[in-house]
């Protein structure tokens, strides 16, 4: 692994056009586990699977279960999460003019908490709320501070649900944002990819846009995209461990 780290450090040190794509493993390091994993007894409490719950039609039909899951499994862990060393490193790389953007399928706002600025949240963010009826973004505090388990919009007596501004099942992605992401990847010199993002839309499509020779895949399952990778980093620990071993001067 020493020669891989040497190359990775060299690429990062020499580049001023790095793009990083992050997924669930990145958030896990910050103490925000994957909310889609069901441990034993999950269905006794929540009755439905996360995939069933995180849909617009489910929110309309069973709002109580939607908000219960959202508060317990997503909102609370997100509030307790703290940016990892890896999150902080990406923020510093941006401040040093080296990292152009983070594209993430995570919805927890942890990159911004670490002071990253240019973060494309491809699946939206729990840090923002949305009322479909008013078609307005609403304060983050709406859901955590709601006096009732279900959060209702009180803009002009609207009364519709206030929901996190994330892409739920059955909803379209923000195509402008995807197009922006595609352009960044296309123009990137070094592309760092958290392997755990690669089974989530639209990451495989984004990767296809990359035209450089410095694609770094971290912890991907063998064979997937190996052929196009310039560097494969596997079994080398967490992102924080890897970044700390690089000893970047930031
Ligand atoms: Zn409303």
Model description:
With about 250 residues, this protein is an alpha/beta fold. The chain has eleven helices and nine strands. It has helices at about 1-15, 25-30, 40-45, 50-55, 55-60, 65-80, 85-95, 110-115, 175-185, 205-210, 240-245; strands at about 20, 100-105, 120, 125-130, 135-140, 160-165, 190-195, 215-220, 230-235. The strands form two sheets. It has a six-stranded parallel sheet, sandwiched between helices. Strand 2 (about 100-105), helix 8 (about 110-115) and strand 3 (about 120) form a beta-alpha-beta unit. Helix 7 (about 85-95) packs across helix 11 (about 240-245) and helix 9 (about 175-185) packs across helix 10. The longest helix has 18 residues, at about 65-80. The two termini are about 20 Å apart. The mean pLDDT is about 95. Bound molecules: zinc ion. Zinc ion (ZN) binds near residues 131 and 158.
Features:
250 residues, binds zinc ion, three-stranded antiparallel sheet, 11 helices, six-stranded parallel sheet, single chain, alpha/beta
Distance between the termini: 22 Å
Query: What is the quaternary state of this protein?
Result: single chain
> What value does the average pLDDT take?
95
User: Could you give a short account of the major beta sheet?
Assistant: 6 strands, parallel
Bound molecules: zinc ion
**Fraction in beta strands:** 15-25%
Which class of secondary structure composition applies to the elements? alpha/beta
């Amino acid at each position: 692994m020493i020669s891989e780290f040497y190359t990775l450090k060299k690429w990062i040190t020499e580049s001023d056009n790095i793009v990083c794509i992050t997924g669930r493993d990145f958030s896990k390091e910050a103490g925000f586990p994957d909310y889609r994993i069901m441990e034993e007894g999950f269905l006794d409490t929540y009755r439905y699977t996360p995939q069933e719950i995180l849909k617009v039609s489910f929110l309309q039909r069973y709002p109580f279960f939607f908000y219960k899951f959202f508060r317990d499994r997503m909102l609370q862990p997100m509030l307790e999460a703290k940016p990892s060393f890896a999150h902080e490193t990406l923020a510093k790389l941006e401040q040093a003019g080296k990292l152009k953007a983070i594209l993430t399928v995570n919805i927890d706002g942890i990159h911004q908490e670490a002071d990253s600025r240019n973060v494309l949240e491809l699946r939206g963010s729990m840090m923002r709320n949305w009322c479909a009826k008013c078609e307005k973004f609403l304060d983050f505090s709406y859901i955590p501070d709601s006096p009732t388990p279900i959060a209702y919009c009180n803009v002009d007596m609207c009364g519709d649900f206030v929901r996190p501004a994330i892409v739920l099942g059955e909803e379209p992605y923000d195509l402008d944002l995807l197009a922006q992401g595609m352009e960044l990847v296309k123009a990137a010199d070094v592309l760092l990819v958290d392997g755990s993002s690669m089974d989530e839309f639209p990451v495989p499509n984004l990767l296809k846009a990359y035209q450089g020779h410095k694609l770094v895949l971290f912890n991907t399952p063998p064979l997937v995209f190996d052929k196009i990778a310039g560097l494969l980093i596997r079994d080398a620990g967490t992102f924080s461990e890897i970044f700390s071993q690089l000893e970047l001067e930031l």
